[in-house]
Write a structure and sequence with these properties.
- Helix 1 (42-51) runs antiparallel to helix 4 and helix 3 (63-80) runs antiparallel to helix 4 (85-115).
- The protein has two domains: 1-30; 42-115.
- The protein has four helices and no strands.
- Helices cover 53% and strands 0% of the residues.
- It is mostly helical and 120 residues long.
Length: 120
Amino acid sequence: MYCAKCGKELPAEGRYCPSCGADRYEEKKDQCGSAPLNLKDEATGLILSIIIPGTGHMYVGRADMGIMILLASVILVIAGFLVIFPWAIAFALWIWNVYDANKRLNAYNECVRSTGRPPY
């Protein structure tokens, strides 16, 4: 067993670490707020979503959804060269992408502010 505070190996008997004096049975306290918060910049997420659909989702940590949006957008744009209707779907997807990325950025930052950890 190793000391949770200094990392040195602990002897089999004894309650305290011989190196740093830490109590081996003391539960770790929640250190929320001790490290700087890793918030995501909302403007960056919006700009990414506007320029390339799906990248705002990737920026906030949802790469799976971002890749799906990016692939759907590419397919719809390619299909749009053949027919007009897919352009309307691609435009609607682009608008939804910007809205959803912004909503997820706000939720991400709120979670980091309240818990000190990213949600995913």
